Amino acid sequence: MSTFEFLMQGVVVAMQPMNLLYALIGVTLGTAVGVLPGIGPALTVALLLPVTYQLDPAGSLIMFAGIYYGGMYGGSTTSILLNTPGESASIVTALEGNKMARAGRGGPALATAAIGSFVAGLIATVGLAFIAPYIVKLALVFGPCEYFALMVLAFITVSSAFGDSTLRGLTSLFIGLALSLIGIDQLTGQTRLAFGVPDLLDGVEVTTLAVAMFAIGETLFIAAHGSFGPDKVEAVKGSIWMSANDWARSWKPWLRGTAIGFPIGAMPAGGAEIGTFLSYATEKRLTKHPEEFGNGAIEGVAGPEAANNASAAGTLVPLLTLGLPTTATAAIMLAGFQQYGLQPGPLLFATNPQLVWGLIASLLIANFMLLVLNLPLIGLWVRLLTIPKPWLYAGILVFATLGTIGANPSVFELGMLLAFGVMGYIMRVLGYPIAPVVVGLILGPLAEQQLRRALAISQGDFTVLFTSPIAAVLLAIAALALIVPLILRARGRGEVLSQMAANED
Amino acid sequence: MSQEPLIKAEQRRPDWAALVIAAILIAIAGVIFFDAARLREVTGYSPVGPATVPHWIAIGLVLLAIWTIIAAFRGDFPEREKQEIKPVVWVIGGLAAQMLLLNTAGFSIATGILFAATAAGFGKRKIWFSLPIGIVLCLVVWLIFAGLLQLSLPAGPLERLFQ
Which residue in A177, A224, A393 is closest to B118 by CB distance? Predict the structure, then answer.
């Protein structure tokens, strides 16, 4: 069957009334949570994961798709109306978007972000549908060596290629890897680092770690700042619709942003946020209104927002086809799949095509729903933004612990939540990135499994890792991704890299 | 006045927090080595058994600890902002109280206390006002999630009224 037929089948699955309802609930919850200041897509997905526990796999993944896209939309609203660049992908949107809102052009800024996200999401999701089968074919020739090399590359790019310090990125990664050892060894069945505690036999839950580090760590970090005055929310004055001139200035940046964001997100390496920076730089160079940049240029919102959404859809390419999460959000989504005993990868396309294509189709549907929901409901989202901080963070913690209690109502699990939350806080204070811990935790066991398989096949010959041409090239790229930033930083050119840091929370 | 930055730089060298991190990394590595020593090596065809990867990770942690110590002495860590301890204690206290009370007092009361403690940490100190709000909110959450979505949230005296 051709991709188109598969996709049509997926649309049929996604259009079932119950699945449409799940998608609608997903986008609404996703936007509502994503709009809250300080909550990025990764945390939105982690917080809302328990809501989907009781559904069947197809329904819950469809709701998930809605939550993911909704969280992305919500984040852009926050950065336009509230200048809180907590999430790096939104820093760029906040640059011009917040200036536009202050100049009373918040409506068009939100509109161009929403429509740009829609256009980008549409093109990128279709791109995902058409590229995925080819990568699946490619992935089928991958053996354990190649998978291991691919994961090493992802480890390096997520932890040390971007951000402001190779040392701290790698330290975060190794903390995640150390945590991933806890539990039963998958190949020999022996317990490792469980110390006889039954709760540890299943290992550390990715969602527990992510919620603890993102939600509790962030709450403690904000609390420790000590100033709880209200942030200034820009009112949306005037028309929320874009003028003909706005349209004329927006459509090209949307398309360029998509073209930049999607390939970057689709690469099996981390740092998906680079696309927004590249798009911003491109628009700044190509604009006919250079004087407006820095004072609220609509191109500076349209391009990066499109790039952001396109690369978010792009990260689903390695996630679905290779089972390789390259961002914290993708890592949590992988945990969501594993909840149902599904391992994303080439085999999932063969064994469960209805589910995969239903998911891809529901991304398209979620995208449409968001366009319809977002602009009319903007007043509601603004209302959410003005919740005072004490109630906001109290509520965030209620929901953060609710997820953990719902998954496993044990005192031990809550203790881990608290311990990792404190760890996340300390790491934030000392400038350690959070995403590598999450990615290390989920990818560590998979990488170990592939490595041990590769070495079992080669009867213990380590050179097998370098004699496969694909694996050798991937490892060489990984080595470059480790060494080049080190040299750049040593020469004092590190600022560019730290700006590109994938800091999603 | 102009000497202040100099003094600061002197004080920050060595960076004690970074040294503590290095010590923690070495401690984690030690625990991994200790645990891996206990594992039976079922090697089969491959010299790579269940203890190999833990060894690598532990060695990596030791190397990172050494690197951290060097960075601490060179003052490579970024400037840290001053942290207020009191709000942090409120929030951690709330989480601890929730953890300890959850199974006896039930979800609503335990989580309501967390809610009030967090709000207190962020400056809303009127517990007599925020605690009832928190408990009612959590009861609503309980009714939705335990009732409609069938999550197993622990029930206490309050929740039993609705069962």
Answer: A393
Spatial CA neighbour of A179 closest among B145, B129, B32, B105: B32
| Helix (H), strand (E), coil (C) string for A212-275 | HHHHHHHHHHHHHHCCCCCCCECCCCCCCCCCHHHHHHHHHHHHHHHHHHHHHHHCCCCCCCHH
- Minimum distance, in Å, between the CA of residue A339 and any CA atom of chain B: 15
Q: Per-domain residue ranges for chain A?
A: 3-499
> Is there a contact between A392 and A398 (Cβ–Cβ < 8 Å)?
no
Asked whether residue B5 carries a pLDDT value surpassing 50, the answer given is no
**How near does any CA of chain B get to the CA of A166, in Å?**
10
pLDDT reported for residue B137: 92
Find chain A residues with C-beta within 8 A of B119's C-beta: 390-391, 393-394
Whether A216 and chain B come into contact, CB under 8 Å, resolves to yes
Chain B: give the shortest CA distance to residue A219, in Å.
8
Assign A90 a pLDDT band (cuts: 50, 70, 90).
low
Average pLDDT over residues A40-54: 79
Yes or no, beta carbons of A220 and B88 under 8 Å apart: yes
What pLDDT score was predicted for residue B4?
42
User: Between chains, do B87 and A421 touch, taking CB under 8 Å as contact?
Assistant: no
Q: How confident is the model at residue A416 (pLDDT cuts 50, 70, 90)?
A: very high
Beta bridge mates, A191: A184
Rounded to 5 degrees, φ, ψ at B52 are -65, -55
Measured in angstroms, the CA of B13 and the nearest CA of chain A are apart by 15
Give the number of A-B residue pairs with CB atoms closer than 8 Å.
195
Residue, of A92 and A335, whose pLDDT is higher: A335
What are the φ/ψ torsions at residue A312 (nearest 5 degrees)?
A: -65, -40
Domain ranges of chain B: 4-74, 85-160
- Say what the ipTM of the complex is: 0.89
**Minimum mean pLDDT among A57-61, A211-215, A395-399: which range?**
A57-61
**In which band, very low, low, confident or very high, does the pLDDT at A7 lie, cut at 50, 70 and 90?**
confident
DSSP string, A58-104: HHHHHHHHHHHHHHHHHHHHHHHHB----SHHHHHHHHHHHHHHHTT
Considering CB atoms only, which of A171, A390, A399 is closest to B124? A390
Which of A481, A436, A216 minimizes the C-alpha distance to A327?
Answer: A436
Q: Which of B32, B91, B120 is closest, CB to CB, to A220? A: B91
Please tell me the distance from the alpha carbon of residue B98 to that of residue B112, in angstroms, as a whole number: 8
Which of A110, A32, A24 minimizes the C-alpha distance to A298?
A110
Which two tokens mark A501?
A: 């840091």
Average pLDDT over residues B100-128: 90
> C-alpha distances in angstroms, A172 versus A159, A164, A371, A430, A485?
7, 13, 37, 11, 17
CB contact under 8 Å between A390 and B123, yes or no, is yes
C-beta of residue A429 within 8 angstroms of C-beta of residue A152: no
Interface check A235 vs B, CB under 8 A: no
What DSSP element (H or E) covers A121? helix A106-140
Q: What is the DSSP string of B26-40?
A: HHHHHHHHHHHHHS-
- Amino acid, res. A466: F
Does the pLDDT at position A175 exceed 90?
yes
CA distances from A132 to A135, A265, A310, A361, A433 (A): 5, 13, 15, 13, 30
CB-CB under 8 Å, A181 with B32: yes
